[in-house]
Amino acid sequence: MTDIPEPDPAATPPAGERRSAFLVIFPSIMLPMFLAVIDQTIVATALPAIASDIGDIERAPWIVVSYLIAATIAAPLYGRLGDAFGRRRLMFVALTIFILASVACAAAPSVALLTAARVLQGLGGGGLMTLSQALVGEAVPPRERARWQGWLATVVVTANAVGPVAGGYLTEHFGWPSIFLINIPLGIVAIFLTVRLPVRAAQGRAWRSDPGGLLLLTAFVATTLVALEQMKHADLSALPLAASLLACGVIAAVLLIRHETRTASPVVPFTLLRQPAIWRSDALAACHGAALVSMITFLPVYLQVVHGVSPSRTGLLLTVLTLGLGLGSIGTGRLMSRTGRTTVFPATGLAIATSVQIFFATFGAAVPTAALAAAMFLAGLGMGTVMGVVQVTVQSAAGRARLGEAAASVQFSRSIGAGLGTALVSTLLFAVLSAENPAALDAFAAMLEHARPGVDASSPAAIAAVRGDIGAAFRAVFLACAGFGALGFLLAITNPLRRI
What we know:
With 500 residues, the chain is mainly alpha-helical. It is 78% helix and 0% strand. It is globular.
């Protein structure tokens, strides 16, 4: 395949050319993105079966956390390497690592070896996410990127929604190794699709290794995410360890910033954050991740406990939220592509989503589930306006030579924001429940871990009391999510890059 010229940033290709480019390029980046995202959630429903088969149930959560840590660390590394050596070439590397790690996961005889294989899989998955986003910026002009980012955001939402369902089905019918083995044929298809991508010469700065930066980045991400994971369990005995790890993470972050600002070829591009359009967009991605992931994490418990909704109906209600996210992403991409406007869409969307969170906090416990479904759809519609705009804004501000670093900065910010947000919301919920009713706290912790029934079903009075206390605590949860949304709204309306 021969080199082809870079697209003119100001050009708008004819409709026929846009359609042809979409059919060639989009499947080649969609499938790797889908694989990377679904492996963050597909394992969750298989954890009981994995623990039952290979034992060591107390360490089973590491199977999920290890992938998240490795993917977060890999994101900026692949961004920098893609700029230096070419993103198409790095996509082959990431897919190969991901496939081989999937084989190792399926064959792992213990939780320790499975966790190690998941680290390797995360190192591949983090690259798939970052490179897919950057390849959009490489392949199409800025105005057209908006439409593509809308579709990619829909892929992410779909993968997050399908993951737990697919994990449960595969585990029940084919055994837990199948959730990893399914990656092999899909990964091979992704490799063949990657061959179709156009070859472009690397335009980024020459690569120089930065082992000190990589070590500090690993220390920061690992200690911070493990601390946040400990905080999410609403376990008072885990708080000292979580606080210690979080302190180590803060120290590592300070040392990382100091080191990277003095390094010629840093792993983490802090120099990009000197641009107001970029740091505001990355902060917006963090706020969006905090609000959306917190809502998706805690809404099922809220619906089942406070409203008495069955698990199957809870899944249907979450599908309504997912539908809103998809429509918001696609609609925003189309509008941004036509008008060139950017921040007006997340500002409007977050205003809607924040209003819905306030509605949940104020009236949620008293309204019927039909009204909740409508509100969840509006929240999803508003949340869907954010990530496509953030990616396009950051890539446009960074320039073509640093597309990979720009895409990685968004992915990194969103991951850290999601982890920090869910941990803070969980801690807030824990504190309110502990103050109101320790029995309600125990019930909530049991339901959150899916370990045992949260309430004694033989006591209707106990059920009513616990539902009331948890419902009151969830007001704080929704207000916290509203706070994340409001901060994101402020970042959107103050972003200087308002048109592309």
